[in-house]
Design brief:
Elements lengths: L8 H12 L5 H21 L2 H17 L10 H25 L9 H17 L3 H12 L4 H8 L3 H19 L4
């Protein structure tokens, strides 16, 4: 498994602050740092390279539009992944609506079933407390180790592991896969 390097939370906060002060050139640095993570999350959610690329683009459009308020964001990675999550869901909903308009909407492919499961799981993840939700995204969407997550979030390793364990337990119970 490839380990994805994560910028220190402080460096992303500084980049967000620079963007909020009008330094639009910082978008290139943010893109280099965040695009692979956004793409990975979006690809996992949508199962499509094209859709994942569209999500990355939409996230950066939103960041540029929200630039003046980004200086107040204290967890930029979580903030950006939340936008990517919502954009992925919106894209899946749009795809589902388009599917209903096709000639034979009764045909369901495995990717549609996967998308339905991903939507259901996403809704359950959204119900988790913010700290648990963040750990799940970083661990299971981006493949970061618990140590990397601990470093990225500023929480100690034990707290990070507990959040991950509790979140998975809740998700399994809600999916009917365990207690």
């Amino acid at each position: 498994m490839e380990i994805i390097a994560v910028a220190a939370p402080d460096s992303l906060v500084k980049l967000f602050q620079r963007l909020s002060q009008g330094d639009i050139q910082v978008l290139a640095e943010l893109y280099d740092e965040l695009a692979p993570k956004i793409y990975g999350l979006a690809f996992w959610r949508t199962g499509s390279n094209e859709d994942a690329s569209d999500v990355v683009q939409e996230v950066f459009v939103k960041l540029a539009a929200r630039a003046p308020s980004l200086g107040a964001v204290r967890r930029p990675l979580s903030y950006v992944l939340r936008i990517a999550h919502h954009e992925s869901i919106n894209l899946l909903r749009k795809r589902k609506r388009e599917c209903h308009m096709e000639e034979n909407p009764l045909l369901v492919s495995n990717s549609d079933r996967y998308a339905d499961y991903a939507v259901r799981l996403s809704m359950l993840i959204r119900e988790l407390p913010e700290e648990q939700r963040e750990v799940i995204y970083l661990r299971h969407f981006l493949g970061l180790s618990l140590r990397e997550i601990s470093s990225a979030t500023g929480a100690n390793l034990f707290t990070t592991a507990s959040r991950c364990r509790l979140a998975i337990r809740k998700l399994k119970a809600r999916l009917g896969e365990g207690k």
